[in-house]
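If you are new to this repository, start here. Below is one unmodified record pulled from the training split, so you can see the exact layout before writing a loader.
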Amino acid sequence: MAEQKIKQDICIGANIRAIRKQQKIGQTELVRLIQLEGVEMTRETLVKIERGTQHIKATQLRGIRDALHTTYEELLAEP
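And here is the target side for that same chain:
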């Protein structure tokens, strides 16, 4: 069964980027933390997600949430 993808709108990626920068975490470090959560992701994928050019998978969103110690509400908030 294919993993569900969440339709990416620009605010999800922008929110991820803003939270990551607020916590002073680089993209490479965030990807490493996400991989430690057992979620497959590359830095290229993270860049595309932050730019809003790639759909984000549910497991990726969970991994980002856990790695950034944030909530789905903050990640999905409207601008």
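Two things worth knowing about this chain: The mean pLDDT is 90. Residues 10-22 form the longest helix (13 residues).
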